[in-house]
């Protein structure tokens, strides 16, 4: 059943793409966090 294996490969690619996108999103957020805290009213995580 080649259809099943191709479906599994497609699911794996979608899953890996989602995980990669989430990791990139978290990395990008953590990088921009230092510039975002200045405009945010929340207490900064790092002491001044």
UniProtKB/TrEMBL annotation:
<keyword id="KW-0472">Membrane</keyword>
<feature type="transmembrane region" description="Helical">
    <location>
        <begin position="6"/>
        <end position="25"/>
    </location>
</feature>
<keyword id="KW-1133">Transmembrane helix</keyword>
<keyword id="KW-0812">Transmembrane</keyword>
<protein>
    <submittedName>
        <fullName>TPR repeat-containing protein</fullName>
    </submittedName>
</protein>
């Amino acid at each position: 059943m080649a259809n099943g294996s191709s479906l599994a490969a497609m699911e794996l690619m979608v899953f890996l793409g989602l995980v990669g996108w989430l990791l990139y999103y978290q990395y990008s957020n953590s990088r921009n966090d230092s510039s975002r805290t200045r405009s945010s009213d929340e207490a900064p995580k790092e002491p001044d």
